[in-house]
Amino acid sequence: MQILIFLGKIVFVVGIYLFLIRVLTIQLADLRARGLAPKNSDLGAACLEVLNGTEYLPKGRKFKIETPGLKVGRGNTNDVPLADQFCSVEHAHFVHRGGMTVLEDKGSTNGTWVNGERISEKIQLVPGDFIKVGSVTFQYSRWTF
Predict the structure, then answer these.
(1) What percent of the chain has pLDDT over 70?
(2) Its pTM surpasses 0.85
(3) What secondary structure, in 3-state letters, does 58-116 show?
């Protein structure tokens, strides 16, 4: 008899937790429907905004950094080709996974700079960071539509 009472208590506690989880998921769905919480597709999306433009890359242009990453350099195969003599053919690579963005310099001659410091290894970016590639400066932020 005591085993049945004990099992009944466990089932009751598990039921309460399942009920609370269901209430929270309904609340989150309601907030998303009202636009007060980000949708799953927007979570962690990031972008680069051009701060000082060139003839081919105007100031204010934004590039969304998606899961496969974003390659920046002078070569035409890059996602963001820069017509800049101070930029290497394959200069930098932004990788975005799990809501965070990591920047890697690809062995460029003039280096990649984050907030005025040259990076020598991969670095995790935070919103507001300034990234200088060649003579072009970008600002890293979260993607907004």
Answers:
(1) 92
(2) no
(3) CCCCEEEECCCCEEEECCCCCCEECCCCCCCCCCEEEEEECCEEEEEECCCCCCEEECC
